[in-house]
Design a protein that fits this description.
By secondary structure, this protein is an alpha/beta fold. 30% of the residues lie in helices and 16% in strands. The strands form three sheets. Strands 1-2-4-3-9-12-10-11 form an eight-stranded mixed sheet, with helices on both faces. A two-stranded parallel ribbon has the order 5-8.
Length: 297
């Protein structure tokens, strides 16, 4: 398995395992993050697998990066992971490193952990439902630290720096974290195809989620707010509502744009990408109003 095949308009690629788009001009007070669509699997993890490699695809937000290709073409800034989530999860804190994943631990304090870590989906995923343990043996602590220093930390530092620039320029900044989800089980006959997450109002002013929900309902798209995906570490780390830096998560049902096996893009990719572009355009309109009102104060 290798990295993506050139379907996106490349702006700038670094050696840290992610790509940066449209950061130089930054004509909009918005930054899009796609942390789980990476399809670059380093040899070090493939050689340590105890499950068939194709099962790692279930960890991916498969081809979620292609959902924002039209937005990138319009100049919206973005940061997109190349490296697979199996290498290290960008939506987890370093405090969610599962000790069972590490050999050679020194006297450093061990992370506190979280429910997701204990369930096998920590900083380095340990197990998959229906597949069991992913790895033949733990990884060395120096290996894990290198992944953090050369990939996890630079990704988040890039987000922080860009949000600070946007906030300074426009008076407001919004991070939109794009994910995809397996089809949800219907509850009372309702099965959302899109879930908007703002950590129950903690990571963004309510107007952004409320307006997205209303627009999607008007378009006949089944949608939910915060259930079952309110957003995780990326929103917690980068949102600072008091400083007018907001962050929301958008989860898209994979059946909207992937084939029946949820592996390759389907005919629905274009229409789903159009929905994402419309949502981003709405957010930009709302942010413009916010920025203007701040300037007038």
């Amino acid at each position: 398995m290798t990295q993506a095949d050139g379907q996106l308009p490349l702006n700038r690629q670094n050696d840290c395992g992610f790509r940066l788009f449209n950061l130089e001009q930054a004509d909009f007070p918005i930054l899009v993050s796609v942390p789980h669509s990476g399809r670059d699997y380093p040899t070090a993890i493939l050689e340590n697998l105890r499950i068939p490699p194709h099962e790692l695809l279930r960890l991916e937000d498969r081809y979620a990066d292609r959902l924002i290709a039209p937005a990138l073409a319009q100049g919206i800034p973005a940061i997109i992971a190349n490296r697979a989530r199996a290498w290290i999860d960008l939506n987890r804190s370093v405090e969610e490193l599962d000790p069972a994943m590490v050999s050679g631990w020194d006297n450093s304090p061990r992370p506190v952990g979280s429910a997701k870590m204990r369930g096998g989906l920590g900083l380095v995923p340990r197990r998959l439902m229906q597949s069991g343990d992913i790895w033949k043996s733990p990884f060395g602590i120096s290996d894990i630290r290198q992944r953090i220093e050369t990939y996890h930390s630079p990704y988040h530092e890039s987000i922080s720096a860009q949000l600070a620039r946007l906030r300074d320029r426009f008076g407001v900044a919004l991070l939109v974290d794009i994910h995809s989800m397996p089809p949800l089980v219907p509850v009372a006959g309702h099965r959302p195809h899109i879930v908007i997450g703002d950590r129950f109002g903690q990571s963004a002013a309510s107007i952004y989620s409320e307006m997205l929900i209303e627009r999607l309902k008007q378009a006949g798209m089944p949608v939910a707010l915060n259930h079952p995906y309110p957003g995780d570490y990326i929103l917690r780390r980068h949102a600072d509502v008091r400083r007018n830096v907001h962050a929301i998560q958008i989860e898209i049902d994979r059946t909207l744009y992937l084939d029946s096996e949820l592996r390759e893009p389907s005919a629905g990719l274009e229409s789903t990408a159009a929905i994402i572009s419309e949502m981003l355009a709405l957010l930009i309109d709302l942010l413009g109003g916010t920025a203007m009102s701040l300037a007038a104060e």
